[in-house]
Automatic annotation (TrEMBL):
<dbReference type="GO" id="GO:0016301">
    <property type="term" value="F:kinase activity"/>
</dbReference>
<dbReference type="Pfam" id="PF04655">
    <property type="entry name" value="APH_6_hur"/>
</dbReference>
<keyword id="KW-0418">Kinase</keyword>
<dbReference type="InterPro" id="IPR006748">
    <property type="entry name" value="NH2Glyco/OHUrea_AB-resist_kin"/>
</dbReference>
<protein>
    <submittedName>
        <fullName>Kinase</fullName>
    </submittedName>
</protein>
<dbReference type="GO" id="GO:0016773">
    <property type="term" value="F:phosphotransferase activity, alcohol group as acceptor"/>
</dbReference>
<dbReference type="InterPro" id="IPR011009">
    <property type="entry name" value="Kinase-like_dom_sf"/>
</dbReference>
<keyword id="KW-0808">Transferase</keyword>
<dbReference type="GO" id="GO:0019748">
    <property type="term" value="P:secondary metabolic process"/>
</dbReference>
């Protein structure tokens, strides 16, 4: 129910067309009708489309039938997003956004409304990392029995296969990325040879995915859940605000200090954190090259070179 036109934010359209190709374009064409259907189904009144919104999802601020504010989130169903609802259900609002309703088959979620314009990016880096580490520690819980989540071993293994394949692409040679790719492949193989612990992980944890709320100071959003070791989850946080570290005097020392502080703050093995940070930065950098985002690719690869 709404007099608000369901439109697609520019960033979402650009990302899905560039990153997901035909499936992304098809989803974008169907999204207004899809969202309108859920407004009716769940008796919601749309207030506004969130701009710029999510990187890969359409977010609409809504009111429930009783007037409660909420957020309707709809996105393309992928292997990474398929179990978001299951992770949110398991956390049940504990350090994460609370899920109010869901249709997992169509990747549509009804969530409590947070302060979408206030993320940890609004804080100075040191303070943001402290708050982020606190949220992460509360999210790292034992997964449910017979859980549906992919393991770090399986997921990182599939990323290694892709990275090995992409190594032969001309763009990788042109970017002088081959030594970093080889190091990332070797390092990740050693990490995957052992699995020291099994926690439910967020999977895509960074400052932008932690929002302010009325219920708690900070709550995590947008998980791409995995089960495995905490160092893998922490590695994506270590990559956050790369441009700040790379622009500082002595960037290599600055990167190493960040890794040490993050590892100490949550009692994670520093060398495993360093290894996963290297792998995730190189993998993200090479993926960015393949979709034509050379600016991000250069940042990720330069960061990886300093780990």
């Amino acid at each position: 129910m709404s007099s608000v036109a369901i439109t697609i934010p520019e960033r979402l359209e650009r990302n899905l067309r560039a990153w997901e190709g035909e499936p992304g374009a098809a989803w974008l064409a169907a999204a207004p009708t899809l969202v309108a259907g859920y407004l009716d189904r769940w008796h919601l009144t749309a207030e506004r489309i969130v701009e710029p919104g999510g990187q890969i999802s359409l977010v609409v601020y809504v009111r429930r039938a009783d007037g409660t504010p909420a957020a309707l989130k709809a996105g393309l169903l992928t292997v990474e997003t398929a179990e978001e609802h299951a992770a949110l259900a398991h956390w049940n609002g504990h350090s994460a956004v609370r899920m109010l309703d869901a249709d997992p088959a169509h990747a549509v979620l009804l969530l409590e409304r947070l302060h979408g314009d206030i993320s940890l990016r609004s804080l100075p880096e040191a303070k943001a990392n402290l708050e982020a580490a606190s949220v992460l520690q509360r999210l790292w819980v034992e997964p449910p029995p017979d859980h549906p989540f992919r393991t770090v071993t399986a997921y990182a293994g599939s990323l290694r296969d892709l990275l090995r394949t992409r190594r032969d692409l001309p763009v990788c040679a042109a970017a002088n990325a081959l030594p970093l790719i080889d190091e990332a492949l070797e390092t990740s193989a050693a990490l995957l040879a052992s699995e020291p612990e099994r926690f439910l992980l967020h999977g895509d944890f960074h400052h932008g995915n932690v929002l302010a709320s009325d219920r708690a100071p900070w709550l995590a959003i947008d998980p791409k859940p995995l089960v495995g070791e905490r160092a893998y989850d922490l590695a994506w946080l270590a990559n956050d605000r790369m441009e700040t570290l790379l622009g500082s005097p002595g960037p290599e020392a600055a990167v190493r200090r960040r890794l040490q502080r993050l590892a100490d703050s949550v009692e994670v093995d520093r060398e495993r954190l360093r290894g996963w940070t290297l792998f995730r930065a190189v993998e993200a950098g090479i993926w960015s090259l393949t979709v034509g985002d050379t600016t991000s690719a250069e940042l990720f690869l330069e960061f990886a070179a300093h780990t």
